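Audit log entry. Action: structure prediction of a protein-small molecule complex. Ligand: zinc ion. The ligand was supplied as SMILES and no pocket hint was given, so placement is left entirely to the predictor. Protonation state taken as written. Sequence taken verbatim from the request; no trimming, no tag removal. Recorded inputs:
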Amino acid sequence: MLITPHLQARAERSWTGSIALSEFTRLQSEFQQPEKAKVDVSLDFFMDDERRIRMKGGIKVDGDLVCQRCLNSLKTTLEIEIDVCILYTSVRKRIDTGDLDVIECEKGPIHIVNLIEDDLLLGIPWKACTTDAECLEDTKNISEFQSESKVGITRPFKDLGKLLLKGK
Ligand SMILES: [Zn+2]
């Protein structure tokens, strides 16, 4: 599952495949039984008009998503679109990426998991339950204070992790 982005893009090759969710180390806690969840990936690589390396396509995740609000898990299918520009950290030349999302990585082969894990993390809703009724039904036993503090504590750390990764 190693690919070399610029070679892949120059050849306009696609990458499709299925990856076990357990391979995404930062996504483990988001799913109940991550070893049973799977991630279907379909990505096109190409050089755009501005000679940037682009990766575009979609990811579909099937699994038991843990609701970070009530901590129940819910069978969920997530479809996440990806449209990013890949930049090599070693390339000094300034590349104007405009409004594009950017993934920075070392030049050379990279595991497909590392290319899509950030987008997956950002695409996962923290509240898996689709209605408040579902969610609140099971939080009756948890005091208001506990559920509030859980919300306050869990999310900022999560987002901080994402921010740090983005700024890397
Ligand atoms: Zn819930």
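Audit: result stored. Residues 147-157 have pLDDT under 50 and may be disordered. Strands lie at 2-3, 14-20, 31-32, 38-47, 53-66, 73-88, 101-105, 110-111.
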